[in-house]
């Protein structure tokens, strides 16, 4: 059967159906097909039928639409029966992945996740996150949507998709390689990171190719992946002079992993040159011995230069652009790079710096963007670096500076004492500053204690006499953090605080409750109950009512499951919404038993 | 009582949010009282709600496989989240006090029993009497409607698809509305589908081929419909056709009793679902939950359809994938093509066993040439389903270039590709995520489709069956 003739007829019928059956009369293209069809019809009757239908369509008269539809119908039926089915050629095995993530997730469970991963709009992150938490995200049917989500404009979703793809096994690597577009953007970076996650060593050739041919983002990711290969040091040394800043920065960071002369020299060159800012992380974190020597040599020279700056003014204010300011800023950077470095040479240099406190205390950094909360001057910066050395020698030296330069070094000396001396020694020598008339002394000491409030997990033994000092200063936060068990003074102070500050925010209320728990105060349940009652009888029209109630209930696990009974009583008189919120907490409290 | 499992709860829940919310109620300890009948055929709970008084919710397992849910809450969802919560409370082993079944429930049980006896299709002895003159009148109206349909179709063909614009679309919408007055709901949906093709696409060139297919379908409906209706009117019994789906396509809604009368029912059938998907059909303004099932006794592939109007989506149960064997005492089959539509009233669940999987695999058709012939025979009919599902037994699945191909033992091949119109989510590429050894000598459920532009007949893979696993490539 000559299917070509039928296909041609179908094309012409399609044309006429689009143009309109009125134009079919005498259509020369159809007429042209007639002889061939008639001839074929001699051996295959269906061709004769098609020819017959064409004749009816092209002849003038009424009812053309029906005739054209009949013709289309018969042609379509033939096309359907003659449709091409097979494919010639040698069959190759499918490059299947060695993953086994077949699950029985149903349509209702799976389709919302697929939709969230492959569409746009709000509310998607929560669906995906919930799926991750439930563990319903490890199905092979999700692999393609996850790849699509790597490019999602909603960055958190893209990150989540990357994390979810880490849940499959190494068998996924061929697919990752297949999906990797070296000229791509962030999604390509994520894919390269995934390849490196699954096989950090085995794919070196790919990383090298990505470094040579990839987009800037891909090249940066490739450098990150290649830093594990010692033989790549020379490549990184070349790349530190690349035209692109991102590449230079990545190469410098990679060099921080190498402990060689060349790497050290390369980093120091960059630090001294135009790339100082982008090389600081690498210089700070590099373990190359030569680098420390070079840095200290440079530091000595810059210190000398700083000390030579004439004392025209009392202080050089931040932001002032004196010619010497560049030197000062440079010295700040050197000190920052010395953070975490160890050794006698570093200690000696810092000690030398601290011998020039009055001179160095005059200088501040010109940039307001840098965070120098406690290291605002060169003197304080040097003291901070010494404190971070954490060696006995460094700490003892700082402790010895007490009374010498209290205006500049009290904070560092106090911290050093806390780390190296007995609690009694610390109280006897430093507590007086906390009740000193001079505000800056008080602040220096209290700010250190406040710093410990933020780090709850760090256990520190303190002299109990400090509690009175904290109460004198009305520092409730510090009292709550360091209140000893059974301290009646502390409990009295906290109860009074609750009485006086009835409208304090709930997070402060929680802090005080935690303080009372620490003090092993026995009647916390009563306090909480009275607070709950006041909340429930308070302004219900307040739009924050339920929010605040939830916040309050969130702290109930602090006092334990016994509070569930109090909540049950309270829930009886509440409206349905409030009761539901309370019931949820009761359920959690009881189940936490 | 039936063993309450999570899958059972999922199978009776109307949707996923009912499941989540029901579970949430248990978590919130909202059930104040929980009762169970001494014979465990009835459970009841008192649940806190937003109203002043508590809701009383119950599940009556007097017919163990199809419980009756009742609740005093105002929700129109049955079962509501409270009933689902009650099941979860039972599933999680909460303490239920023993109590007698309330009198009103016992009365309702009696009523149901009586009604079931009355309605039970298995008890039907005498055929249901129909008002023949009314039916004849309806058929005559449908005939008139088909004339209108043909007028619409020839009007479009006369003017040409190229002339369709906003004005003609508006006119066609009006005409489609009129078809509803002639009891021609299915042709009405096809016309609406046709209109939507032009409304949804700016580049008409992309939709002409599909539009022509639909015109031919409407023309076929006119031709076959007119012939069939005339035949029925001439018949003194006004008998329905049992060898084709023409009556359904003309708007007839099959009753189970009718199917029973015509003998289109099978007893004690075990079904395994191999595919599930939910379409959103704008023309019908309905969601269509479609399931593809295999009969473990005969190997026949069936289709189940659950229509949920957009407006009532909250109140009608949303079907879901099912991974157990569905044991159906009576399976009603509609007249149709390769995949007949089936329905059932009652069912129970059991685990799929190794022998079930082996049986399914054995039902796969091993001669691709024969399959292609049958499929083509269906596709050439303008009124037939253009996406027939077939279970194939393949000797290997491989690739030729970028194309996936299934090959039978004789070397006959079928090209595997996703549906050209994207009506189903992509699944072919997922074959690459299946272990190599499973791509040899197993069974594959595929949906055949022919692209009118390329004229190539391809098959979209849906589900792979091995001796040990049933791997759904879709849902």
Structure in words:
The complex is a heterodimer of chains A (593) and B (475). Chain A contains 33 helices and one strand. By secondary structure, chain A is mainly α. Among the domains of chain A are: 3-82, no CATH class; 108-257, Leucine-rich Repeat Variant, CATH 1.25.10.10. The longest helix of chain A has 19 residues, at 64-82. The model of chain A has no long low-confidence stretch (mean pLDDT 83). Chain B is of the alpha+beta class and 475 residues long. Chain B folds into four domains: 6-119, no CATH class; 132-246, no CATH class; 254-356, OB fold (Dihydrolipoamide Acetyltransferase, E2P), CATH 2.40.50; 362-472, OB fold (Dihydrolipoamide Acetyltransferase, E2P), CATH 2.40.50. In chain B, strands 6, 7, 8, 9, 10 and 11 form a six-stranded antiparallel sheet that branches. In chain B, strands 14-13-12-15-16-17 form a six-stranded antiparallel sheet. In chain B, strand 9 (325-333) and strand 10 (342-344) form a beta hairpin. In chain B, helix 5 (132-159) runs antiparallel to helix 6 and helix 5 packs antiparallel against helix 8. The mean pLDDT of chain B is 86. At the A-B interface, helix 1, helix 4, strand 1, helix 5 and helix 33 of A face helix 2, helix 5, helix 8, strand 6 and helix 12 of B.
